[in-house]
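Dear colleague,

Following up on Tuesday's group meeting, I ran the structure prediction for the two-component complex that the binding team flagged. I've pasted the input sequences exactly as they went in, so you can double-check that nothing got truncated or mislabelled along the way. The structure tokens for the whole assembly follow below. Feel free to forward this to whoever is handling the docking comparison.

Inputs:
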Amino acid sequence: MSFDIFICGVGGQGLVLLTNALGRACLKSGLKAITGEMYGLSQRSGTVSVHMRIGEDAHSPLIPIGGADVLVALEAIEALRYIEYLKKGGLVLMNSRIMHPPVETAGLVKDRSRKYFTLEEAVSRVKRWTSMVAVIDALAAAKEGGNPNAENTVFLGCLSALRGLPLDPAKVKEAISEVVPRGTVEQNLKAFEIGMRRASEALCGYGVCRDLK
Amino acid sequence: MVLKDVVSPNKGKAFMLCNEAIARGAIEADVKVVAFYPGAPTSEILDTFSEALGSFDYQMQIATNEKVALEICAGASFAGLRSLTAMKSVGMNVASDTLFVLGYTGARGGMVVVMADDPHAHSSQSEQDGRFFAPNSYIPMLEPSTAQEAKDMIKEAFSISERHRVPVIVRTVTRVNHQSGVVELEEIRRSGFSRVRWRDLKEEYLTLGEVARRKKLRMIERRGSLEREFEESAFNYILGGDAEVGTGIVTASTAYLHVLEALKVLGISGKVPVLKLGTTYPVPRRLVAGFLKGLRGVVVVEELSPYLETEVTMIAKDENPGLRIFGKRSGHFSEAWELNPDLVAKGLASALAIPYEDKSGIIEEAKALKEGMPERYPTFCPGCPHRGTFAALSQALRALSASGKGYYFANDIGCYSMWVFPPFSKADSSLCMGASVGIANGLSNVIEERVVAVVGDSTFYHAALPAILNAIHNRNKFTLLVLDNSVTAMTGQQPNLSTEFTAGWREGKRIPIEDVCRAAGAEFVEVIDAYQVKENVPVIRRALEHDGLAIVVSRRECALYGDRRKRKRGERITPYYVDKSVCRKPYACIRDVHCPAHEIDGDGQPRISPELCDGCSVCSRMCAFGSIRRSGTEGERR
């Protein structure tokens, strides 16, 4: 068996670092890990996705359609964009933040009766795929930790709250300290803790989280 | 990237991107000279070598283009030093003139060429299948599936190269380069770098007429000895299966990993024999023949063209004429786009006649959920100087159209390619590196409209320069915009000829584009600052009306590169904000600009996200009412 995580977001949100921290935590835990990473054409603001697969049984760098145990979306619309990768009834950790793409804003300017695609709309559609959805205000959590750029580590915390993740949260924290820029370690570890708490709160009814001390 | 893992002298394990593992393998193999022109999905190989340059004594150059990079490596190899270059396969199109001759001259020091294909055209202009370079140039080729195998193959490639006195291609695809995994590190034991004496080494590396004819015979012999060696290579192996199944699989590269995944999904892991090929030119025919013997059918699983399928078909013709071959020609797999576990499972299930419910139902269901969801096209980063240049160009082009004259716009390869995508959607053509200027040379003499071409700084030197010189010499009349953002931005902001730095961020001689153009005799050469939108419109208008070649160099460093430099200097990035009491909602800040930091608020007024804004000022210059201001100028801070 493999534990498959599909991670997506917008270019600039730090998916590469998030992936690297998870991979290092796997290495520390003696687990095989393989990824398929897609950065897109533009350096920022485009859609970005990572297939993260943990376990001896994970062969392909790509998760089969409908195969991911968890979908992590650092931006709300992106959760919907890749929903087919999630198992029916799988778990979604999604940001409440929406970054409206320029093409959508251009549409509103052209036709003032048009409306943005809303968070509520994204969440309600995702919920038609699975009931287990945690919507996390990661930007607020990151700011609370002292660094608005730490949305990615907030989600590492969210993931680490899950009992199904075959990694000891202590190992993930160790990996975070190794990959984030020096001087931001403390802020990132704080963001991690906040993320872990927020996911536990959001998912407390489902029995999928570790017991937090 | 975690540099520590790449430069650690000790044995151990690391979680690495394949491109880092490739660099690590070459460093373990004591590579002495590396040279690159960046190109996705290989750019991180260059970046890793550049970062690690301070820890080792290899020589590194970031070259003008892939051809020069290949020649730098060939030069080192002729002198007996180990060398490595990496390029995307469309880069190999540029370098191939030299590659083909290297097939004749051969090499001395181990010479490895990493060539990456991009099935699905994730970040390329075509889905070109670069594997055909190998048989065409008689140069051996290895194909890894994983980061670990890529590292192992790089090391072995140096040995093969030296044993057979020929460069070796290590061919990857995007899903190999951009795959991370756990990689075994071996000890790094480097010998010191020193110059060698050519007079002690001297041998001839030339080919012409009679010499070429003689060498061709040697190349054919060399192919034979390589094939004999590859029959025993550990990179080719058979995963045994149930003989009763009667059908086997031949595969390579990432397709092999998808096959393993698909067999698992189909519940037949270990039941179907699989021949995994790592040496794909020359194909070890005896090994393949032995595998095919006794089979009733074979499924060839590979991406893009039926390259292996053709080899298998030819071998089967002699060894097993009744063999059924499933692959591209039978319609089980497509030549278009990349494979994935689902497509491979579908093709295998059909060939093996076992039940499988494909994923079309689930994909349709997801598609229905996505109705009305906005697309997220690749676009310019917040602060990107191209946004300012194109805002001015748009205004100038509108004026041109209003005066009844039309235009043709030739785009090119670089971050400015993003102008092709919505909401901009502007370009009549975009082909390959530097082609915009070549096209302009042709079009400007045959159409009534004004031709406008654009290239970047890196592209200017890489491939556009010959076409620009052609325009000057032949007195061709068109407008050329050179967008000089100081670095090769699209591939990760590597230094180039327009940067005062070179590999490892060591000092390099910057070559100003306008000096080159003027020295070549261009009469209209203007330099503008990309952010000064209003001031730039009349300059571009003059360039559009000029009766001759008009070159405008729009200069301003790449925002990401600039931000990094600002952070180093301890400077803050101050975002802009909309003063809502002044804004009258004409949306000039959004039209022609389309910055990801801009959104429309609930009250219909624009809002600038302080997390995304880079403080470039371009949107504020578009506002006639002065409603967009720098944070802190009116007491408002982030």
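Chain B touches chain A through 67 residues (CB under 8 Å).

Cheers,
M.
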